[in-house]
C-alpha cells in the first residue's frame, strides 16, 4: 500500500463515526436525505455548531472535517450506498 493510500485510509477511518452519525441524522429528518445534505453543504450550518471557546486551529479543523464528511456522504449517495446499504467509505 502506498503512503497516499494509507493516509487516505487513516483519514477516512478517523472520520467514519462522524460520517455515520451525520448520515443517521440526515435520514431521520422529515426532509429527503439528499435535499438535507445539499442544504448542509450550501448553507454550511455546521459552522454554527462550533463551541465558542474553541481556539482558531480547532475551529478550522472542525470545519475541514465537516467538509470531508459531507463530501463522503455525497459520494455515498451517488454510488447508491447510503446508510441502509451498510457501505463503508
Short description:
This protein has 89 residues and is an all-alpha fold.
Domain count: 1
| Number of continuous helical runs | 3
Helix content: 55-70%
The whole-angstrom Rg is 14 Å
Mean pLDDT across every amino acid position? 82
**What's the main sheet like?**
none
Termini distance? 17 Å
Overall geometry comes to flat
> What are the low-pLDDT stretches, counting only 5+ consecutive residues below 50?
82-89
Number of strands: 0
User: How are helices and strands ordered from N to C?
Assistant: HHH
**Helix/strand-derived class?**
mainly alpha
For the structure shown, list the relevant keywords.
mainly alpha; flat; 0% strand; 67% helix; disordered C terminus; 89 residues
Chain-wise SSE layout:
Layout: H1 3-28, H2 33-43, H3 56-78
What does this 3D model show about the protein?
There is one protein chain. The chain is 67% helix and 0% strand. Helix 1 packs across helix 3 and helix 2 packs antiparallel against helix 3. The C terminus is likely disordered. It is an all-alpha fold.
Amino acid at each position: 500500500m502506498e503512503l497516499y493510500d494509507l493516509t487516505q485510509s487513516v483519514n477516512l477511518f478517523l472520520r467514519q463515526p462522524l460520517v455515520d452519525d451525520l448520515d443517521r441524522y440526515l435520514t431521520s429528518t422529515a426532509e429527503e436525505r439528499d435535499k438535507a445534505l445539499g442544504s448542509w453543504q450550501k448553507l454550511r450550518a455546521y459552522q454554527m455548531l462550533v463551541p465558542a471557546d474553541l481556539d482558531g486551529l480547532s475551529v478550522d479543523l472542525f470545519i475541514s472535517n465537516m467538509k470531508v464528511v459531507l463530501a463522503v456522504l455525497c459520494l455515498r449517495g451517488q454510488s447508491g450506498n447510503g446508510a441502509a446499504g451498510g457501505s463503508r467509505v
